[in-house]
Design brief:
Number of helices: 25
InterPro entries: Cyt_P450 (IPR001128), Cyt_P450_E_grp-II (IPR002402), Cyt_P450_sf (IPR036396), Insect_CytP450_Detox (IPR050476)
Cofactor: heme
Subcellular location: Endoplasmic reticulum membrane; Microsome membrane
Structural class: alpha+beta
GO molecular function: heme binding; iron ion binding; monooxygenase activity; oxidoreductase activity, acting on paired donors, with incorporation or reduction of molecular oxygen
Main location: endoplasmic reticulum
Length: 529
Amino acid sequence: MIGFTLFVLTLSLLYYFAIRPHNYWSKRNVKTNKFIPIFGDYYRMILGKESIGEMIQRCYHEAKNLRYVGCYLFQFPALMITSPELVKKVCVKNFDHFMNHKNVIPDGIDDFLTKNLVTLKGENWKNMRSILSPSFTSSKMKAITENILLFDVVPLILQRPYNYWSKRNVKTNKFIPFFGDYYRMILGKESIGEMIQRSYHEAKNLRYFGCYLFQFPALMITSPELVKKVCVKNFDHFTDHKNIIPDGIDELWTKNLVSLKGENWKNMRSILSPSFTSSKMKAMFVHISENANLFAQHFLKMDEETVTVEFKDAFTRYTTDVIASAAFGVKVDCLKDRDNEFYVMGKKGSNFTSSWGISVFTAYQILPSIAKFFRLRLFEENIQSFFLNLNSKLELSDSDIASQVFIFFLGGYETVSTAMCLMAYELAVNPDVQKKLYEEIIENRKDNDELLYETISNMTYLDMVVSECLRKWPVGAFTDRVVTKPYTIEPEVAGEKTLTLDVDQYVIIPTIAFHHDPKYYEHPEKLHT
């Protein structure tokens, strides 16, 4: 009985709120077009079959030879006027009967929408109109025209930086002012690696071409021979890298070996180089091996037939363990202690795709002077403090050393773990390679259960697999150089002219594009071992 009562009540409510309102025009002998209860004339829009403009036109043409037609906006009745003469009466002759617009938001709910000139009603509308009308006199419109002219000048100012390569007779690919060659990345249509490869292939048969990173001109070199000149033969002209953050803003970034320039770079390199001799690497291997055993044991102890592993998470935890023990003498186990400070800070410090990281990077690219004025920093204060505190534990307090600590941490944390992830993927999809590599490892371990530094050094197939994975999946899509002494590129092919690169000119070397060019690697998308 209760169920029947609820059923009747539901039908009654449905009729009262959904069906009954649609009798409005029939009671007044006004014709209507086809509609559906509840949705009214909006039903095709709800289904995504037409826009608001298409709905209006359809209703208009369905009411042919009528001066007006009734329609329903959901359950609300509306009269559509199809006669221009009747429109004149409503909007001009009898305007005092039709002063108001329909308000989407009820009064008192949202003042921002309900108190503007379009939504105000009656006397409130008249008062506001009398206040605003003087803003649109002839003299005021003339003043506005001057601002409109300013908007004509702004595009010219924005386009000015994009004449750089055309003045030097250097060809460029398609770009969009303000965003440069980054426009597809901004729209989320390609990654940095895809952008580099696209630009490289669009410049086919050229040794170099010009591109724009936002408004900054850069020269991308597509000839391996020219790359050798830049990176080896004439290296003294290209000793520096481009620095994302200006000097003096964020010392954790600007004082590391990658960012330092000139004599500062030479001095820091001479200090750090002894840390990577053969004997030091051999000593470091002990820590790598110990943590590798802990890593393997962690998953072997899982009493499950199938173990699910999120490789990026697992490998970054492993590399954190290695760096903590090898570089800082601190033993951590990030697989067990999942909120370990080393891991958390490494993850924060290497997350350049966060909204803040992207904002800072973009600000220094588009508005460098303003970004520098506000001293926008890439890293949060707690990350800075963490690496400075690491120095104090090592009895080192200089910010120069803190910066090296950070870049060492970042390099091991992010790049190595990424390479390991991609190598694991390639071994999974290439079982023949996996089997051959496994056999080499077993063969080299037959005389010793423990993998030694010398043992791994003698594994030629392992070296081939790692090298080929890095060829197919380079950790960096490109590398760069900044001109430190003027350099001239002499013409060698038809159509080229002498090109002089000024000091501070940015040069891009498209690593990933070389690695995936069939000219240098047959079937580059395959893993060759």
